[in-house]
Specification:
Blueprint (H helix, E strand, L loop, with lengths): L13 H4 L3 H4 L4 H10 L5 E5 L12 E5 L3 H6 L24 E5 L8 H10 L5 E6 L8 H5 L1 H10 L3 H6 L5 E6 L2 E2 L20 H7 L8 H17 L1 H6 L7 E2 L3 E7 L9
Parallel strand pairs: 1-2, 1-3, 3-4
Antiparallel strand pairs: 4-8, 5-8, 6-7
Length: 267
């Protein structure tokens, strides 16, 4: 496993792209509600690849794990300090957490199955994963303008079948999470109704690490073509309906793996 200078243990260097991350990647309350509901009545919760702390439950005993020093520094004072560790080597005894979660991070893990097995080892109840389906559910403008980004994401994002197989014996539910048009969380796909936002390099840097895996020429072409189409009105002639949508399925999924004999935790 390669670790970057700041400790980033995945395939993206958050020492380079992590500055200002928490100001853009903030929890959307509607998505947050779905994540918290999936945690059930858990009191002790582990957040793996915790980053700036988005979607961590409030009022529960949270333990956060984050290998990147840059991302640990992005955590606001209202969040618990994160432990420097990786998913595939969690420094905890078995069954010490009521539930565990990982929010839009598993696609970066170099040993996905090992990391998920570790989450299951230390967790008595549900393991909750917020992730993206690598299969684009419906044609929309961003994959049309920059297919290279979604080719990268398609290789990085694990399939739903692979995630099911990683939890043998568990009851695995996969929920579709429609993304609201005014989504507070600034991941790249959340701007389906606000294309102008993706022209901002600072937004792109924090919204999708996949931008770091494409050539500068691809980025320049994207900025040039989308910018020109927005200015001329061509974008709205072809894709304007996306501005009118209240929500859209961009592939965001909530995977909930629950052991058949999971304990019920007193509220």
């Amino acid at each position: 496993m390669t670790r970057f200078q700041d400790g980033s243990a995945g395939d993206a260097d958050y020492g380079t792209i992590g500055k200002g991350y928490a100001s853009i990647r903030r929890a959307d309350p509607r998505i947050e509600q779905r994540v918290w509901a999936a945690l059930g009545s858990a009191r002790r919760v582990l957040n793996v690849g915790a980053g700036g702390g988005s979607y961590e439950p409030v009022g529960l005993e949270v333990t956060a794990v984050e290998p990147s020093a840059s991302m640990r520094a992005e955590r606001p004072p209202t969040r618990v300090p994160a432990i420097d560790a990786t998913a595939q080597a969690l420094p905890f005894d078995a069954d010490v957490f009521d539930a565990s979660m990982a929010s839009v991070t598993i696609h970066q893990w170099p040993e996905l199955e090992k990391g998920l097995q570790e989450m299951r080892r230390v967790t008595r109840g549900p393991v909750v994963l917020l992730t993206f389906d690598p299969v684009i559910p419906e044609e929309w403008w961003m994959p049309a303008y920059v297919p290279e980004i979604f080719e990268v994401e398609g290789r990085r994002m694990p399939s739903m079948e692979r995630l099911r197989a990683a939890f043998p014996g568990d009851d695995v539910e996969i929920e579709t999470i429609p993304v609201p048009a005014d989504c507070v969380d600034g991941f790249g796909q959340s701007f389906f109704a606000r294309p102008e936002r993706v022209l901002d390099p600072a937004v792109r840097r924090a919204s999708m690490s996949a931008w770091t895996f494409v050539e500068p020429e691809v980025v320049a072409r994207f900025e040039r073509e989308l910018g020109a189409d927005l200015a001329s009105g061509e974008f709205d002639r072809r894709w304007g309906r996306f501005r009118e949508l209240e929500s859209f399925d961009v592939g965001l999924r909530l995977v909930i793996a629950t052991p058949p004999a999971a304990l019920t935790f007193d509220v």
